[in-house]
Amino acid sequence: MVNAQPEPEKRVACGDTLRLRYKLSNPAGQVFEDTFEDEPITLTLGQGELAATLENCLIGLEINARHVFILEPAQAFGCFDARLLQRIPLTEFPPEMTLAPKAMIEFQLPNGTTLPGVIQAIDPSEAVVDFNHPLSDCPVNFEVEILEITPAAQLRPLGSR
Questions:
Q1: Smallest Cα–Cα separation from 151: which of 55, 44, 50?
Q2: Which tens digits make up the pLDDT trace of 71-87?
Q3: Does 2.40.10.330 match the CATH number of domain 82-130?
């Protein structure tokens, strides 16, 4: 007689590739992003496709259960940091670029990555740009449903056997 052991339930771990749906909203119900009505997204934990603070919420979750995390600003996208307000001379912007308060602009860093900034104010010689995350200082509700987990150990580089 063989004792069949039930297969252990898959749970999310670092490096796993996930297929999921999620929604970000504030406590008043204003939705910032919602993928529940769209095709599920696929992402790999640790690749920077989702904020690290949100990725941490996913560790240990099981498939097909919906979870809601209520995150304070420091747990979500951080608290406002005045050091991330930068004064940038207008001469640093392309002449054809129209600058306006509340406009979001992507800045290219020396390593080739981009960083979004929001123009807070403009005077005759410079613009004040806020590089804080747009949801910094905001409590966030993070609702998520994991649809599929591909463990990191099962992922193989192309061309490997």
A1: 44
A2: 999 999 999 999 999 99
A3: yes
Q: What is the dihedral of CA 59, 64, 70, 72, to 10 degrees?
A: 30
Q: Which CATH architecture has domain 17-78+135-152?
A: Roll (3.10)
* pTM over cut 0.90: no
What are the structure tokens assigned to 111, written together?
């390593």
Return all residues near 126 (Cβ < 8 A) that are at least 6 apart: 87, 88, 89, 90
The residue extents of the domains of the chain are 17-78+135-152, 82-130
Indicate the DSSP class of residue 101.
Answer: T
Let me know: does 152 contact 15? Beta carbons within 8 Å. Answer: yes
Spatial CA neighbour of 46 closest among 13, 72, 68, 76:
13
